[in-house]
Amino acid sequence: MKYVRIIIIAVVAFVSSGCSPCHTTRRPEATPRSGKHLFILSGQSNMAGLDPSLSFTPTVTKAFGGDNIIVVKNAHSGQSIRSWCKSNHENPAPTTGRVPKVRGHLYHPLIKSVQGRIKGQDIGTITFVWMQGESDLNNTAYDAYLEELLEQLQDDLKFKDINVVIGRISDSGLDRQKRLAGRKYIRKTQVLFAKSHPRGAWVDTDDLNDKKQGNKIINDLHYTAEGYKLLGKRFAEQAIRLINKADQS
User: Fold this and answer.
1) For an engineered disulfide with 133, which of 105, 171, 179, 186 has Cβ 3.0 to 4.6 Å away?
2) What is 208-236 written as a DSSP string?
């Protein structure tokens, strides 16, 4: 009887405390993100001039940790987007200007470099950062090429939800009539593409190319040393924003 009384007292004490394993509710804990964050940086000269280690990589490292990021940069000066895309989207197909002999010839080293870096890695997010356009001022289908380039990455990396950050070409040349319409078209197309893409964003570069020439400030084609640092930071901040936005949705 001694043991029976002890058991009854224990049960009564548990019930009177208001605790019941059948009615206890616990808030589900957030599931940690699985996989690393891959950042692919590509484009022409103003991407070639960007050193990711100065501002881009430190910014994304601060956000996600050095062990959780992979940064791959592959850029080539003076190249049309046609050099990254495998198809022609212009009618008629151009025969003059920045038209490569082999369409997409710069895409192959880009994707090869990316695939080499991520081999054996678990990838959780992919962000494509694109800084290019000055060599496409006569390109009437720039938006179609952007779409194809993204689709190529999606197919080859087998990853649909790729974030896209586009650097809008700067205000260099907007004070001249020569190819002015083409400059305005590329700038407008880049912004519209980024805004219409569910995972897109764009970066303003108009203040990154201000250089002093005598007593005059000119809008140069290429950016200043400080301008490139700011560009990397802006790219990183937009990339982080897109990743966090996707996490919250």
Assistant:
1) 186
2) S-EEEETTEEEE-SS--HHHHHHHHHHHH
